Amino acid sequence: MATSIGMLTLLGLSSALKASLRRGVNSRRGAKLLSDRCASRGTRSSLYEHFREGYSDKAELDMARVCGETDVVVAELENRKGDLRGADVSDIVLVWQKLQELRQDITSLEDQKHKISARVKELVYGMPQLLQPLLSQLEEFRRAKQEGRDIRLRLSQLYPRELELEEEHYRQALRLPNRTHPNVPVGDESQASVVEMVGQKREFDFKAKGHLEIGEGLDMIRQRRLAHVSGHRSYYLRGAGARLQIALQNFALDLLQRRVRPAVGNALSGALMWIYSYGCTRHEGCGMQPHAHKSQIYSLDPSRFSDLNLAGTGEVGIAGYFMDHAVNCRDLPVRTVCSSTCYRAETDTGREPWGLYRVHHFNKVEMFGVTANESGDESSQLLEEFVSIQKEIFSALELHYRVLDMPTQELGLPAFRKYDIEAWMPGRGSYGELSSASNCTDYQSRRLNILYEKEGGGLCYAHTVNATACAIPRTIIAILETHQNKDGTVRVPGALQPYLGMDIIEKPKYAPLKYIGPNQPNRPARPVVK
């Protein structure tokens, strides 16, 4: 993984090294690191630094649309959350135009330099060997040499300016959101559109309990008295709780394996790939802003692992798998399945301080797809397919849920359109989000260089789609609260019984652990040391 590299000082470098840096070659010799300069001018972009050091090709953002449809881009930006506003788009366009003009000047000067160099070679090789000492007296030769020196001097001034403008461009433009689907509701969370309601709320002849009370009664969940072990929002799953987590993961993976099948014969209707995603990865390439949302991100020790974070979702790891690679068009769409542990700091919210709804780490089964962009509908079709899989999972778990078309302020930067599925949680007395599914079109692929190879040759930017198949803790909440019984036991949905090996979760026969720590009345006497 790339190390964070700051802005490179070009003063004193050879013209060859400057040219190599301009081409994106990873040249460190003679370069001074100035990583603080980026931060002093605003939010830095570790993804741009990754490009500049040659670890990956530079992102090809859709600046033609930003410049050609500026009013539309501004209107869509104003409807979303984020630190950029409409006035920033004009600045982004201006910087881009300056960069393009500068690059045209550089290209013109480089062409002139090559022509002059070729002319000088002609004069040198065309002069007889005996007359070579007189070459410097030739007016045309002296004029060409001087023009060459002037051009090199001018280029030595333009290359650093190009790098500065390029950095400024990426630092701002990488924060622009994706386009917005025209049917997405405008507004905050309250404007979400209910697409579908599935099942009915369960009626109870007793007062429904919350999942934490149920789990503690069955010795499945322990969350109290853990501050000295692993801090707030941590938890243990024990016995049936641990088995339920594994059962949900295996059930989701098995269903996905059955759901995605190659077509009969030689034609392949998309590949299914299994990936186990490790936690350390870059978020910015997926459109997430770790520097802007530090309260949600666990960052590793920067003195040892610069710009590495613990992944908050399996999506970023799978996207990194495809980074700088091209998929053959015959294999599209590629559907990947990932089982991973996700880490979220959750330090900026006092909501849900207890229970499994908001926790620091949890297991999740994630779907990620790569599609072509020929008709323009491929990624939308895959999004609908992923949502149908989510519905199949939650229906099999006998949950009541609703599908929401999320409004503009609930779309992250990469999402063109996003659906959330919320299950009814009787103990909470409200719906709670179980999963989401997002069509990111070419937003991520342009940043990560995810492409597909067409039949006749040539590369095109792919579209990416991601969706949660099963976020384990929240699904456990919905199961415990929906299928609880009056006597404190929990009925296991039929789809999970083969995985769990039981149809009822009952209170275990053993005596639960007894707390003997400090800060309690009637604390038992400590053992006598002999």
TrEMBL record:
Keywords: Aminoacyl-tRNA synthetase, ATP-binding, Ligase, Nucleotide-binding, Protein biosynthesis, Signal. ATP binds at R344, A345, E346, V359, H360, H361, F362, E433, L434, S435, S436. CDD domains: SerRS_core. Residues 1-16 form the signal peptide. One of its GO terms (molecular function) is ATP binding. It holds the Pfam family tRNA-synt_2b. SUPFAM superfamilies: Class II aaRS and biotin synthetases, tRNA-binding arm. It catalyses: tRNA(Sec) + L-serine + ATP = L-seryl-tRNA(Sec) + AMP + diphosphate + H(+); tRNA(Ser) + L-serine + ATP = L-seryl-tRNA(Ser) + AMP + diphosphate + H(+). It comes from the Eukaryota. Its EC number is 6.1.1.11. Residues 307-493 form the Aminoacyl-transfer RNA synthetases class-II family profile domain. InterPro entries: aa-tRNA-synt_IIb (IPR002314), aa-tRNA-synth_II (IPR006195), aa-tRNA-synth_II/BPL/LPL (IPR045864), Ser-tRNA-ligase_type_1 (IPR002317), SerRS_1_N_sf (IPR042103), SerRS_core (IPR033729), tRNA-bd_arm (IPR010978). It is an enzyme of class 6 (ligase). The record marks T468 as: Important for serine binding. GO terms for biological process: seryl-tRNA aminoacylation. L-serine binds at T313, R344, E366, N466. Gene3D superfamilies: Bira Bifunctional Protein, Domain 2, Serine-tRNA synthetase, tRNA binding domain. Belongs to the class-II aminoacyl-tRNA synthetase family. Type-1 seryl-tRNA synthetase subfamily. This is serine--tRNA ligase. It comes from Denticeps clupeoides. The lineage of its organism: Eukaryota, Metazoa, Chordata, Craniata, Vertebrata. The gene is sars2.
